[in-house]
Design goal:
The structure is a single chain. The chain has 215 residues and is an all-alpha fold. The chain contains 9 helices and no strands.
């Protein structure tokens, strides 16, 4: 899976948004836009995880994914709101930012896949968000950031705790891989690769502060 997504991941690491996080030049309004969009993404990501958990072939996997769903909504959103608060922005759960086009497309892809696909396909679609963020976090941690808020965000995804969460999902994928046909494996790899592309698009969306075309 990773080898198929490696070219996209390498380009992701060179994206000006991520470069700006570490050298401190990322404009704050773009980071704020990212956090607001990511909060919306995580809301749907948590919903998708709950659907996926209902299809889990093992009870312990269902429990793990349901726990991850809660974490996606509570733990990471708390980080976002802490950073936004430092920017002087107070987000209310009742007032949400409208989803940008790329965000809407990515979250729709996740929901459709977990609802209509097999458990393995749904897991493969969800995996890029886990795995790529971990890899990005580790690379950015080595680079370091001159901005405290940006470093706080980096530390979240480079942490051992987050790495443990990612390894739980990777273990599920590895366990499923041995029982797949060639066609099933290729389908999962293709879904993972598509997700990796969506991850690049998400950074680019934030960099451009993407908006819907005017009506």
């Amino acid at each position: 899976m990773w080898e198929r997504a490696r070219p996209v991941h390498e380009k992701t690491l060179e994206h000006p948004f991520l470069r700006g996080l570490t050298d401190g030049t990322l404009p704050r309004d773009r980071f704020q836009f990212y956090l607001e969009q990511d909060a919306e993404y995580l809301r749907v990501f948590g919903q998708a995880l709950s659907v996926l958990a209902s299809k889990a072939p093992r009870e312990e996997w269902a429990k793990t994914l349901n726990r991850h769903a809660v974490d996606a909504i509570e733990v990471e959103r708390a980080l976002h709101e802490t950073i936004l608060g430092k920017f002087g922005v107070q987000r209310s759960g009742a007032v949400r930012a409208p989803m940008a086009p790329t965000n809407a497309a990515y979250t729709n892809h996740l929901l459709v896949t977990v609802e209509r696909g097999t458990f393995a396909e749904g897991l493969a679609a969800m995996l890029p968000c886990y795995w790529i963020y971990w890899e990005v976090g580790k690379v950015l941690e080595k680079r370091g950031s001159k901005n405290r808020e940006y470093q706080q965000w980096i530390d979240q995804y480079a942490s051992a705790e987050y790495g443990k969460t990612v390894r739980e999902v990777l273990a599920m994928m590895d366990a499923l891989g041995g029982g797949m046909t060639t066609a099933q494996r290729e389908r999962c790899v293709a879904l993972f690769e598509r997700g990796a592309r969506y991850e690049w698009m998400f950074w680019d969306m934030a960099w451009r502060k993407e908006q819907w075309p005017p009506q």
